[in-house]
Amino acid sequence: MQVTGGNSNEKVHWADVCAADVPQDVPHLIATGITPSGPIHLGNMREVVTGDLVYKAMKERGLEVELIYNADDFDPLRKVYPFLPESYSQYIGLPICDIPCPCGKHKSYAEHFLEPFLKALEELDVKPTVLRSSELYRSGKFTEEIKTVLENAAEIKEILERVSNRKLPETWVPFYPICKKCKKISNAEILGHDSEKHLVKYRCDCGYEGECDYSKGEGKLVWRVDWPMRWANLNVTVEPFGKDHAAAGGSFDTGKEIVEKIFRADAPYPVAYEWISLKGKGAMASSTGVAITIDSMLEIVPPDVLRYLIVRSKPEKAITFDPGMGLLTLIDEYAKLAEKGDSREYELSKISSVATDIPFKHLVTVVQIAKDDDSIIEVLKRSGYNVENSDAVLKRAQRAKIWVDKYAPDMVRFTVQKELPSEVYTFTEEERYALEILVAKMEGMPEWNAENLHNAVYKTGEEADINPKAIFTCIYKAILGQERGPRAGWFLEALGHDFVTKRIVEAVGAGAQ
RNA sequence: GGGCCUGUAGCUUAGUCAGGCAGAGCGACGGACUCUUAAUCCGUAGGCCAGGGGUUCAAAUCCCUUCAGGCCCGCCA
Q1: Which nucleotide shows the minimum CA-to-C1' distance to residue A490?
Q2: Are residues A337 and A430 located together in one domain of the fold?
Q3: Domain that holds residue A381
Q4: Strand B within 7 A of A39 CB
Q5: Between 20 and 30 A from A152 (CA), which of A209, A307, A381, A490?
Q6: Which residues of A in 228-247 have their CB below 7 Å from strand B's atoms?
Q7: A153 and A234 assigned to the same domain
Q8: Residue A114 falls within a domain, yes or no?
Q9: Which residue lies nearest B6, CA-to-C1' measured?
């Protein structure tokens, strides 16, 4: 493998390594897929973004490649998850594409969780061809393969028992009929198979005995066989999957042997990835409730930064996501990359639609001063930022606002005190004198702006023979009730002349008593 | 029980495939900027490369082993 272009010290991105590692002379299909059985969370996103990164790397390399996302909406509901009402116990076992939507606004249970996820993908600039298992099964696309599976059930059973080292029941067949009576994807006993008519005779646990036509999607293959069957049917050449599947004896191992021996096809190039966990909370899983959905992430994280989170770590590395201060660091780090603009990581993360260069940290402060959209724009404009693309600016500001509300540590939060904070009583006589000079300067100021305000503080320091730092501290104490605060010049500018001078005068007066 | 992945500075990590001076970023600390305390720039400290053994002229890297965390051998990203 030679991917460095001759310079062995050059760092090569893992996605480019994958792209260089696959066969170079055949058309490629990258398959990603998630079961929408619950809120699709940040962890799930790794699968799709990982696929997308390899897709982009392969494309840039000049390979013929397509990206698909397969929603396994034909999977049964396994239990009443914590986020579901108890009444959903009646639907356990039904394919999630046939279960009513929890909120009533979508076509089905599966679509309820799928729709926001697909929207998020679009925001993340991931544009796969979307397939639904239910539609594929019901269209008869898999008929031939299911027939092959049923005819080779014994050999498949042997592979599964040997490779994954477990014992399956004597009568085990890798096919679940959907019972005509109870509608469940049932672990029914298979009584017979008519390969001409594509019929399977079964006896369901509910007692019903009948036939199902698998060419019409009246049944489903078990996961471990379904997966390799799809590789063969769709011609999958690359597939990212979670580390659970990657373990020895796991579904990739069994799938590999099944696809080779039963379907006479090759397993895809595997890209196994680690979990994303939440700082202090453990791994994400929709079933346990430890999950930040992609939606709630995109509420605070710009989409390109979210991509960057995946881009910067090799797939086999676990990611611990810290939505608090860690997120701010991440955003900063990404902003620096963006500024340089020539790194591979930036190329893979960036999204053309994201276009504002206002530092997120700055917005975190602005949204705590300016309460509505107009004043946010106003404040930003005065500070010299480009606000032409006001939609993008406000969207970013909105993210900062939600972040401050939900995730920010107290350190970066501040409140402009409505009443005079008690800290002003600790001011020394020197400090009060300096503040008096400062107010005088403010009154005589040709224009109320950050630069003049800032200079005024330094001038005051000279004239009153006091360290300007002390004056800054006084200002923060008088306005916020704390010793530190956002950069003083434009902070005061944003607060406005009337409020600032009145407050400082009050503080001087109070301290004098 | 059998197997897979991970472990490098306080934190996030590069380097491991293919052995050749252990590198970044954040944070901390120090300084500069007589235009910024949460801006910017410069600098400093911080490492038994999880532990032990082996191979080698040379090991974070290869082999063996121990420990810690996670995962798989029902279903899961």
Answers
A1: B36
A2: no
A3: 360-404
A4: no
A5: A209
A6: 241-247
A7: yes
A8: yes
A9: A317
Nearest nucleotide to the CA of A383, by C1', is B39
User: For A426-463, how does the pLDDT look when each residue is reduced to its tens digit (9 = 90+)?
Assistant: 888 888 888 888 888 888 887 777 777 888 888 888 78
C1' of B5 to CA of A274 (Å): 8
| Joined tokens for residue A463 | 């004239």
A213 belongs to a structural domain: no
Let me know whether A2 and A114 are in one domain: yes
CB-based contacts of A21: which residues, under 8 Å, 6+ apart?
Answer: A1, A269
Distance in Å, residue A273 CA to nucleotide B70 C1': 13
DSSP A316-342: TS-EEE-TTHHHHHHHHHHHHHHHH--
Give the CA-to-C1' distance from A384 to B34 in angstroms. 24
**pLDDT, tens digit (0-9, with 9 covering 90-100), for A457-469:** 888 887 887 777 7
pLDDT tens digits, A391-423: 888 888 888 888 888 888 777 788 888 888 888
Residues 145-174 of A with CB under 7 A from strand B: 164-166
DSSP per-residue string spanning A446-489: SS--HHHHHHHHHHHHHHHTS-HHHHHHHHHHHHHSSS--S-HH
